[in-house]
Amino acid sequence: MSQLLVRGGRPLDGEVTIQGAKNSVLPILAATVLTGDQVVLRGCPRLRDVDTSIRILRSLGCQAEWEGDALAVDTAALNCCAISDILMREMRSSAIFLGAILARLGQADISYPGGCELGPRPIDLHLSGLRDLGTDIREEGGVLHCTAPHLTGRELVLSLPSVGATENLMLAACGAEGTTVISNAAREPEIVDLQEFLKACGADVAGAGSSSVTIRGGRPLHGCEFRCMPDRIVAATYLCACAAAGGGVYLRNARERHLATVADALRKAGCTVTSDGGGIACRCRRRLRAARPVRTAPYPGFPTDAQAVLMAALLKSRGTTVFEENVFANRYRHVDEMTRMGADIRVAGRVAVVTGVERLSGAAVRCTDLRGGAALCVAALSADGESRIFETSHIDRGYEDIAGDLRALGADAVRVDNE
Ligand code: UD1
Predict the structure, then answer these.
(1) Bridge partners, 412 (sequence order)
(2) Does the C-beta of 316 come closer than 6 Å to ligand 1?
(3) End of a domain among 204, 227, 250?
(4) Which pLDDT score, from 0 to 100, does residue 70 have?
(5) What is the mean pLDDT of residues 335-350?
(6) Which of 302, 306, 322, 360 keeps 20 to 30 A from 261, CA to CA?
């Protein structure tokens, strides 16, 4: 068990390199199964969810070894089509292995995935799309027995642009005969990264980043070397850290085009956000103003994953900001913890109303989920005195070293590992 100790009240001044994107690397690790070959993923972040993916790959008979900051995966010896319930429950992205294993072996046994508790997180869209491609799915004792001797490409229309379903279906479609078109596909930059990876392996995929992704399946895939995109949510977290603490930071590798809505909200609140070819700079010299209403939505809308960190940045702003969470049903679990620091937040259903307060005080708080936990670190930077942040294992799922990064940015933050 470890804690983060954050002493607030110190303006930031520093720079940091943004790690590779968790939400890009996880589906890519599942996609390595398609190749039956060696893949080298450069700039792969060392995260708990990446460890889980490695354990899944090894449990399937594949090899995965770190070589510095590169992860070398060899899926040639894949000899198992089942993922244990324990591994499935460790993260949401375990579900993406389903499409890849089916495409490679024609059968797969999995149970329902775990992940952050943000309200119900069904995988019905994944399963109905896989059925449409020709998969027979039987559920028995919590296990989904899936068989697909002949996946066949066709048009799939998602009823909502689910990121995970789009990825799962892209992977299955690579192993299907003929053309699959996924309509109402998610448009997140991580989908584009997955497409680029698949193309580097020899797949014929086009359209990612738009609502229609076309996969011409049945091609033999091969290994490749690939560098995944920088993590836009980690970058959003550190932009919000700067907004909360004041001062100036430079985030090497961060791409503003992935962060337009977050940068825009911060500018409206009074920060100066600029970018050059190499990264994004943020400066905040005064008390922030409240932001316009923040409505989360699928990309290119405001990311639900950045809702909590932006809220943390605005806790001491002048005025009132309305948040509307439209992607997940239960994504305000960080609010009670922020209230312990003196925040004024009222939640009613999907809406949270944040009224800026003059001061926050450091407190003992508990991470409730990955981004909510990161948001507590951000809030702690603007609180007087020390905050102790518990249950940091949630944060470890998505941040390589949040305390080290915040220190590089000039904050007083340390991780303490308890017995
Ligand atoms: C991914 C991201 C997560 C982010 C989310 C939304 C990864 C590893 N995780 O999660 O960080 O918060 O996108 O940007 O990339 N839904 C259904 N049925 C389904 C699938 C989804 O009803 O079969 C619903 C979900 O419950 C949720 C909404 O659709 O309310 C969006 O979910 P989705 O886009 O699938 O998110 P994830 O892929 O789980």
Answers:
(1) 7
(2) no
(3) 227
(4) 96
(5) 97
(6) 360
How far apart CA 109 and CA 330 sit, in angstroms, is 29
Q: Are 172 and 247 part of one and the same domain? A: no
Nearest residue CA, atom 4 of ligand 1? Answer: 305
pLDDT in tens, 94-104: 999 999 999 99
* Residue 204 identity (one-letter amino acid): D
- Between 22-35 and 163-174, two packed helices, what is the crossing angle to 10 degrees? 20
The CATH number that applies at residue 238 is 3.65.10.10
112 in Cβ contact with 124 (< 8 Å): no
pTM reported for the whole predicted model: 0.97
- The percent of residues above 90 in pLDDT, for the chain, comes to 92
Cβ-count burial of 197 within 10 angstroms (0-12 exposed, 13-18 middle, 19+ buried)? buried
Please, what is the end-to-end C-alpha distance for the chain in angstroms?
7
In short, whether 232's Cβ falls inside 6 Å of ligand 1 is: no
Q: Is the pLDDT of residue 115 over 90?
A: no
The vertex-298 CA angle with 343 and 273, nearest 5°, equals 60
Boundary of a domain, candidates 208, 227, 246: 227
**What 3-state DSSP class applies to 245?**
helix
As for how many domains the chain has, the answer is: 2
Per-residue pLDDT averaged across 117-123, rounded? 70
Mutate which of 98, 112, 121 for ligand 1? The one with the most ligand atoms within 8 Å of its CB, which is 121
> What is the domain range of residue 88?
22-227
Q: 328 in ligand 1 pocket by Cβ < 6 Å?
A: yes
Whether 46 and 92 map to the same domain: the answer is: yes
